[in-house]
Amino acid sequence: MPLVIAHRGSSAHAPENTLAAFELAADQKADAIELDAKVTRDGHVVVMHDPTIDRTTDGHGNVSDLTLAEIRQFDAACKFDSSDGSQRVPLLEEVFEAVGPRLLINVELTNYSSQGDGLEEKVVELIKQHDLFDRVLLSSFNPLSLRKIKLIEPRLACGVLYQPLRPAWLTPLIPHLEAHHPHFVLANPLSVTWRHWRKQKVNTWTVNDANTVRAVARVGVDGIIGDDPVMIRATLEEMRRQS
Fold it and tell me: N or C, which end of the chain is more exposed by having fewer CB within 10 Å?
């Protein structure tokens, strides 16, 4: 059965990209989490999807323009309706420490608007410090970012992200690519079989309903990335019982 990968943690049940969401995903028996990494103005790697902190916190501004201390002033749980406490934007190393021994971790390198900020080098160093070579997969829509990772540390596994209107034409530039991460509408038997023939994994996103879980599982994907790991697990278990 495919791996259950909690998108930004268990983000259907807790504020996205927070320690609460990642720890809940582990408690809910997800196999892995997916998260987003960015660099602050003073060089810290934080977990945040958007270029700004506006959507998910009560603060304002670009991550790349703010220091860690400035970002930590704001509540990363305030926009989540059922949140029962405040959360701070976590450092990537805090996530590694909290759930690294319990879960596989897919780190998306999201410095799309701040390329050249050293994110790739900083993430590699954090993985080395926490000895998580076998537990972290790095992904990006930017093949050149993954190429940089491979040139820095060839042992790290990488997966290229793509969607219908954003194909990854430069994927051949990534040496020894381990995985493809297509949007679920692009996951079909032919493409999955081709990737498997090339010894590459296929992890698809963002799958948030049971019918789509069944569809992508039937074509043989290796991982399903979605907001609700409980729903994904229950649907896969139902399929297993019926098979």
Answer: C
Under 8 Å CB-to-CB from 191, ≥6 apart: which residues? Answer: 182, 202
Give the containing element (helix H, strand E) for 96. helix 92-99
Return d(Cα 37, Cα 90) in angstroms, integer: 10
List domains and CATH numbers for the chain: 3-242 (3.20.20.190)
| Interval 187-214: pLDDT, tens | 999 999 999 999 999 999 999 999 999 9
pTM of the predicted model, to two decimals? 0.97
Report d(CA 105, CA 116) in Å as an integer. Answer: 23
Residue 42 structure tokens: 């003073």
Catalytic residues: 7, 49
**Are 207 and 218 within 8 A, CB to CB?**
no
